[in-house]
Design goal:
0% of the residues lie in helices and 43% in strands. It is an all-beta fold. It has two domains: 4-13 and 132-269, Sandwich (Immunoglobulin-like), CATH 2.60.40; 31-129, Immunoglobulins (Immunoglobulin-like), CATH 2.60.40.10. Strands 14, 17, 18, 21, 22 and 23 form a six-stranded mixed beta sheet that branches. The protein has a five-stranded mixed beta sheet with strand order 4-12-11-7-8, with no helix packed on it. Strands 1-25-24 form a three-stranded antiparallel beta sheet, with no helix packed on it.
């Protein structure tokens, strides 16, 4: 018996990416160039410094080495704010993000290394500036349930990288018990509701510190958004309720090797059984 379900499976949908960086170890080319493995995407704070390493170097005996950087296939213009370091790294005194792409520092950066034998792309990396929207696209709404029933609140907000959601009840920390489930997508599920669960619920969204490359020691500059509250009303009712699906994931697209959460929240009295089937109609 169960009144809700959640299953994490490996994704089977693939997407194409132009980022070509070695997955493991160093790669040595015939040109006497060694390419180091680097992440395909770097997320940074706006108005803070950033150092992009070229992640490639030329072996001795292959002549002088020169470096060139492009952003979105256009040569990077060096100035007081953007400088080329002697080892080929690209240094930003501070990052800019603008609505007009031509005035923003976001984009695909490529480092070209040249020696006496030729030219190679030492690094390809997408640079994104951390941001979080000023308004939520979805916030908790008032709802009514019964003792033994279920409740579901949801928050959504546009952010890079995806935000971390923190839930509160009546202005304080959300009680921790085996009846509440919080999902990374911004969903709060409450199972086997009790009278004490009645109250106001709201979420806060903020960036995850480990996802930002150039996070300063003072993290107060990271934005945090707080949603409006949704009120949960709980009534006493022991009458039988037919099984019903309160919410189920409809369709989702993810990358290969990523995990995905398929949400299923059901209600009924007595509690209904839940069965998961794979695309091959086999039981999970």
């Amino acid at each position: 018996m169960m009144d809700g379900c959640m299953w994490v499976v490996a994704a089977v949908v693939s997407t194409l990416t132009t980022v070509l960086t070695p997955a493991q170890g160093n790669t040595e080319l015939e040109l006497g160039v060694v390419i180091l493995p680097t992440p395909p995407t770097v997320i940074v704070q706006r108005r803070t410094p950033l150092l992009l390493n070229c992640s490639a170097f030329s072996s001795p005996g292959f002549g002088p080495t020169t470096y060139r950087w492009t952003r979105n296939k256009v040569d990077v213009t060096f100035n007081k704010r953007i400088q080329l370091v002697e080892n080929g790294s690209l240094y930003f005194q501070h990052l800019k993000r603008r609505k007009r792409p031509s005035r923003s520092d976001e984009g695909l950066y490529e480092c070209f290394l040249t020696n006496s034998r030729g030219v190679v792309i030492g690094r390809q990396v997408f640079v994104k500036v951390a941001r979080i929207a000023s308004k939520f696209t979805k916030m908790p709404v008032d709802q009514t349930t019964v003792v033994g029933g279920v409740a579901r609140f949801e928050c959504k907000i546009e952010a890079t990288p995806p935000p971390v959601f923190i839930w509160e009840k009546d202005g304080g920390s959300l009680p921790i018990n085996n009846r509440t489930t919080t999902l990374a997508s911004g969903v709060l599920q409450i199972h086997n509701v009790l009278m004490e669960d009645a109250g106001t619920y709201h979420c806060s969204a903020q960036h995850s510190f480990q996802d930002i490359a150039n996070l300063r020691e003072t993290v107060t500059s990271l934005s945090r958004r707080r949603s409006d509250a949704g009120i949960l009303t709980v009534n006493e009712d022991s009458a039988a309720r037919p099984p019903s699906i309160v919410y189920a994931t409809d369709e989702i697209t993810v990358n290969i090797d990523e995990s995905v959460t398929l949400e299923c929240l059901v209600d009924g009295n007595p509690q209904p059984n839940v069965t998961w089937l794979t695309p091959n109609n086999t039981h999970v």
